[in-house]
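Box 3.1. Reading complex inputs
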Amino acid sequence: MRLSELQEVASLAGIATCVKLLLVPTYHSTDFEVHRNWLAITHSLPLKNWYSDESSEWTLDYPPFFAYFECFLSIFASMLDPQITHLQNGQGYASNTVILFQRISVMVADLFLYWGVCKISRHLSAARKKLLLLAVIFSPGLFIVDHIHFQYNGFLLGMLLLSLAALQDGHDLLGGFWFAALVCFKHLFAVAGPIYFVYLLRHYCRGPQKVLRFFKLAGTVVGVVVVAFGPFAYYNQIPQVIKRLFPFGRGLCHAYWAPNIWALYYIVDKAAAIVLRKIGVHVNVPQAALTGGLVGDFSPNALLPQITPKISALLVVGTMLPCLVQAWRHPRKTDVARWVVYAYACGFMFGWHVHEKASLHMVIPFSILAVQSLQDAGDFIFIATVATYSLFPLLFEAKEYPIKVLLLVLYILVMWVSFAHNMMERGELNSNEASVPISDSFVHQPCNLEKLDEGKNVEKQPKDEGMQLLSIFEKVYLAGLVLVEVYGQVLHPFFLRDHLPFLPLMLISGYCSIGMLYFWAGQLFKIAFMSGFHTEQLPHMKKA
Amino acid sequence: MQSSSSSSSSSVSSCLPCLKTSTAEGKQKEVRADSHSNTFLASSSPSDSPSTGVKKNVDAASSCDNCDLQKLAAAAADASCDILKPIDDDKEMLQSETDVSRTPNWRSQRSTSAFMTLLTRRSAIGTKKKKKQMQKKMEQAFVWPWNSHKWATFLAISMFAFLLRMLVALHSYSGAAVPPKYGDYEAQRHWMEITVHTPVKQWYQNTTDNDLRYWGLDYPPLTAYQSFVHGIFLNAVEPAAVALHTSRGYENTSSKLLMRWTVLSSDILVFFPAVLVFVALYYRQHANQEQAWALAMILLQPALMLIDHGHFQYNCISLGLAVGAAAAVIMRQELMACILFSLSLNHKQMSTYYAPAFFAHLLGRCFQCRSPVVGVMRLGVMVLATFAVCWWPFLSSWHSVLQVLSRLAPLERGLYEDYVANFWCSTSLLIKWKQVFSIPMLARLAMGMTIGASLPSMVQQILAPSAQGFLFSMLNSSFAFYLFAFQVHEKSVLLPVLPATLLALNEPQVLQYIVPIAGYSKRYFLYHAKKINFKVNELQFLLLGELIKLLESHGSFSLPFVMKVMV
């Protein structure tokens, strides 16, 4: 990488890090204590007890690589302040030291994100590269989830980007390696597993050496998994680990309904129950049905059939089928990013006990597509807004409220203007240029520039370039978001006061799930019916 | 035919991002093309920034076919009239498509772009492949639409500045949880308490309800009114925070948030609009991009951000009013300038630092009028009227005026406070000023030196008042005050820093060294005041300083400025 490119990334990352440092004293969720407890577990217990420890309610439920990562961090933590890594005394410990340490560890881990975004943008033109850097590094979702709420998503998404970059460059084995490692860090990323499997099988394992290649691939993946789970297998801990990783005891929806199909499902269910009761039909409405805070073993439905984990899993795989078929029939490396995004979208829409934070898994990789075609850029603006907005309820304290709003609005403003200006105008110019063979016709016919340029002007309409990014529906929908927010913040407390406290949250998740559904359906449509849809393929990709 | 036209326009516009790249790198590359092309360039592009672009272009062109260049220049001279014509007529197209239009000098721009058209075109005939590469390079650069989205740019910068202010406000303030006097936060809160619960006449008087020894009001009436308004707001939302007597040292999450928001809202209502107007007026001759840069420099000024939103004060109001007054001066609205500056003075007496500049400039303007005496009278009446309105409740008796005045000028506090990077403090290592002279003597000495130091620019302004000269005069007199005046507080460094930032595009060097120096001198102060949260605050402070530097080095943000600094 050239020095100037490094400088570019470094300066953007530096500004982002400044903002992140200033975010240190903001609210942090229980996830903060969860991760602190993991530091304590991995530091003070032998490996075989990591997944069986129950001294705190925040048990270790991420795969082994993440545990090793915490173990590595705990070395520094215990040097800094031994209380952080103390299993009993450390519980609920939230001094300045521990806050600063954990916050900074997230910022440092974000180096992976920067690395990933550098890799993936390596072959892009300067403008697109800058767009991608801006889109990923300043993603308000990452700020909210990682640096306020507290998690380590940026670093994991960086690995996903690294994997996608390797695939786009044709290094299938490396891509597979990174993905396997990623899944061993956080198993929620496994949703894209089928896509990776089919794609690598069809794209990598072919040619005369296909059997050999298959074994190489399998060896790599199995190697990663063995490194991760091997020590636990040695201590016969695997069943315990599996039990922790897949807690199906939890309900279909999280406490705050992630904006997916199940949120709509519940809303329809409740609405139907209420309507039927009004009519006079007797409906057996479960107790907790209308509290909105559904944590527990089951999520009661009044009318519609109960959803089981099996149904949810089948739906995820079923909706993923079109892109699996595509990956089987035309394993093109240019399409991988879109398939992966779609796979995460399916996982988000139909998955079991989905967190709203999982929407980042599709938004961040989708920015790769966004900088390559205008239509995807519009979709990106749309989905980034909806996904980030759906994260707002995570931060409920008053002091973060203006910050999260400003983060989102500023990001959307900057991205919108940059996309509109860097892709629309010159995207057209590119296509013109491509159609026109370079010749010296200029020398012969210099005087007709005038007329034709006029025609071009009309066609281009430079004034409202930004507005073309989104369709009418999308614009109206986004305006509706503002109304939802105004209702939740102003009208609801003013008119209803303490009645129906769940309504604003339900409205947010219901409204956002419509947007998510729209995005998901759009992606499905593109994959199913517009195969090879790349309006402006990049030259290096075409060539390859 | 068609092909020729479209490819021509595309190559014109695709050359333009190249300007950006060349400036973005901020390093002027020496051209090693032959003399012919150089002379041609000199004649075709007199303005600064495009010429570098063309130079680079030529550089690239010369790399692909060096020998052709000589012929090329001649061909360009011949063909230029033909090429110029269509582009001449199609100004609008160029304007919409490119960012060239930002400089007022149209003619030179046009010929430049025409030449560039020719260059790219001509070189392509020789080596198509290289041309393709070159064009690809040029079309690539990231472009921010400074011209078509000027207000979006300004909005984005303001929002970022506001975001940073909110983030700084999340942190602790100086003196938090340190009884008995806490810090400036408590002083401001106490003034709200006093102004809300006692009659106006008692605000500056020692009464049973108003113990002047505990953070007695020592700013002019406008600060008192501002405290009153904010106090009413706090009283409505959280009465316990401003309850009389019982609320000393009162602080919880919500009251802190409310207090922080009183500063944030003052900032956005006073300082931000004033700066926007100032930039739009003073830098109206500059390109939009430079305006945006100037705006960013002023709004992201770390010193002000930290003092107001970290340490807790309302400097944004008095400084915002002063910036507004400066904008009025630039607009030639002298009466408006008088009103705004009087208000600024009435908010914080520290604004006196700018008084010599305003006095000299307005006097100079009056001398330019047909009847100077009438002019001076008009302005004088305006100032007196503004003061009278502000001081109205205290004008009932001579005694009450004196009472307020004595609160405003506490001579007993001494020559300087603990850590001030000014003349008296630095030289006290050699001469023990406080022992050699008596306090009234020192006050007189300080006054003499201050006036002496600010005299040159005052004379200049009286003789030849001008907008830029006025700003320099502001800088000069505020520096004179900061260095030589009596009883300077380290926070006063804000006052010289402000005009230095306002002059960012004229005098980048001044800004370059004043920001770190101001930061450094404040560091003692932050250290002193915030021992508890020392680590976090130190870090945050350093980073904000770094942020400015980063923004400077950051390509899309800074082009001309960085060039000036680096060359």
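In summary: Confidence is low (pLDDT under 50) at residues 1-126, 522-543, 546-567 of chain B.
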